[in-house]
Structure formats: C-alpha cells, structure tokens
Design brief:
Membrane topology: Multi-pass membrane protein
Protein name: Probable membrane transporter protein
Radius of gyration: 29 Å
Shape: globular
Number of helices: 11
Structural class: mainly alpha
InterPro entries: TM_pro_TauE-like, TSUP
Pfam families: TauE
Family: Belongs to the 4-toluene sulfonate uptake permease (TSUP) (TC 2.A.102) family.
Order of helices and strands: EEHHHHHHHHHHH
C-alpha cells in the first residue's frame, strides 16, 4: 500500500508498508478520501413537493371560497391525490379543515368591515352549524360517505339549472320573507349543511349561499357574508372533534392555512369590489364544477 509522509527536512516521501493483513503498519500515516456532501433524503424532497402542491391548491381554494364558496372542490381532491397513498381519508379531511378555517376567517373579517350583518340570525345559524358539523365529523370517523353522493349530484344539477335559467337570481334582496320564516330557514339550513360539512365537506359554502338567497331573501353579497360566518362555525365544529381524535396532519395543515388565508383575503376584496353580477357568474362556474366532480365520483369511481 502506498503511503505518504514527510521526512525530517519536511519533504514529501512515499512509503510502502504491508502487514500480514494487508493493512498499514502501526505508526504509518494514511490519508482518508474526502467525503462527498450528503444528498438530501428522497422522502424529505418528496414532502417539500407535496407541501408546494397543497399550498397552491389551498391558495386557489381560499380565493374561490371567499367569493362563492366551494373552495373545498379544489383543496379536497388535490389533498386526497397527494396524501391519499400514505394517509387515511379521515386524516386528510381533518387536515384540510385547518386551511379552510384560516381562509374563511380572513374572508369573514373582510365582509364584516363592509357588509351589514343580521347578527341575531347569524348567531343562531353559527351555533346550530357548529354542533351539526361536530356530529357530522363524528360520523365521518366511523362510516363511509359514498351513499350521499348520488343525492348531492341531483341537488347540484337542480341548482345549476335554476341559477342559469333565473337570470335575476341573487341580484337583489327579496325583502318579502317574514322574519320568523327566515329564522326557521336559517336553523334548518345550518343544521343540514353543518352536518354535511362535517361529514363530506366540499361545496358547503355554495350551498349556504344558495340557502341564504332562496329561503332568507338575501342578495349574493349579503348571502356570501352570512355564509362565511356560518361556514366558520362548521369548520370550528369539525376541528374540535378532529383535535379530540388526533386526526390532523399538522405538517401539511399549517402551511396550507397560510396559503388559504392569503387567497381568502384577496378573494373577499375582489367580491366586495365587483358586486353581485360577478359573484353570480363565478357561483355558476363553481356549481357546475361541483356537479362534474360528483358525476365523476358517482359514475367512474
């Protein structure tokens, strides 16, 4: 084996030393090869890429959801595709509740500053929605939700057709709805849609807007503002249950929450600036997208 050392004059000389085992003799010098820099772990690189995809979807979801609801139609499918191979469905649906709550909170704040809120109605809706969503999330952790999708498909088809045909739908408030009827409609809608949001989720914001327009008599802007508050309560109810169950994947939930909040802030400002006509068009687009999504789930999965 070739070895290098310096003699008494400091000159570099080459030594040849062998032992019976082929190793350098004691006292001889050896030079170890330089170590190459460590390569990033493949799993860590994959995680960064997953977070990037999820944050992009969360931003788009927050933007759309702040205007017409239905942001879960973007966020939830992407999350299921990205995280589905390695995580349980219940954990994924629990995780996306965190960015949904974040974006909805910021969007609701924007609406509160610019839209007059009917607080007795909103408070009753929020309280009902919270407990209904808690119950829906509890059921989600125990049973499958596939049997509800055909029903939602029919409902969405009717909503899309009605919105397209009725051109003045949501363009101006209908002031002839009696207050007791508004209260009953708010409680029933919050109970039904709160449970739906905790159990399935995607499209809840759009359904809430529809309920506030049809049964309570709001225009699109008023309906969007009140739907945000109610949706905030449904998210909080689900999160409370999932925290108890330990289902949330915080590594993905926190960066998604920041992205969704930014999208919600920008979306709410745009909705307030553009008004009812813009919201109606985007609402129709989102409802059709929801319809197509449920068609795929029902007929091709």
């Amino acid at each position: 084996m070739d070895l290098r050392a310096r003699d008494r004059q400091g000159r570099l000389v080459r030594l040849r030393a062998r032992t019976g085992s082929g190793q350098p003799r004691a006292g001889s010098l050896s030079r170890r090869p330089a170590r190459s820099p460590p390569k990033p772990a493949p799993a860590l690189t994959e995680t960064y890429f997953q977070i990037l995809l999820l944050c992009t979807a969360a931003f788009a979801a927050g933007f759309v959801d702040a205007i017409v609801g239905g942001g879960g139609l973007i966020q939830t499918p992407v999350s299921l595709v990205v995280l589905g191979p390695t995580h349980a469905v219940a954990s994924i649906l629990a995780t996306v509740k965190i960015p949904s709550f974040s974006g909805t909170s910021l969007a609701a704040r924007q609406y509160l500053q610019r839209v007059r809120i009917r607080w007795p109605l909103a408070a009753l809706s929020c309280a009902t929605a919270f407990f209904a969503s808690f119950g829906g999330s509890l059921l989600l952790t125990q049973v499958s939700n596939s049997f509800i999708k055909p029903v939602m498909l029919l409902v969405l088809a009717a909503v899309a057709l009605y919105t397209f045909v009725k051109k003045d739908f949501g363009q101006r408030p209908a002031r002839d709805v009696p207050y007791p009827a508004q209260i009953r409609a708010a409680v029933f809608s919050s109970l039904l849609l709160g449970f739906y949001d905790g159990f399935i989720g995607p499209g809840t914001g759009s359904f809430l807007i529809l309920a506030y327009i049809l049964f309570i008599g709001f225009d699109f802007l008023q309906a969007s503002a009140h739907a945000k508050l109610t949706n905030l309560a449904t998210n909080l109810g689900s999160i409370t249950l999932f925290l108890f169950k330990g289902k949330i994947l915080w590594l993905f939930a926190l960066p998604m929450a920041a992205a969704n909040a930014l999208g919600g802030y920008l979306g709410a400002r745009l909705a307030i600036a553009r008004g009812n006509r813009f919201i109606r068009v985007l609402f129709l687009v989102v409802v059709v997208g929801t319809l197509l999504r449920f068609c795929y789930d029902v007929f091709f999965r």
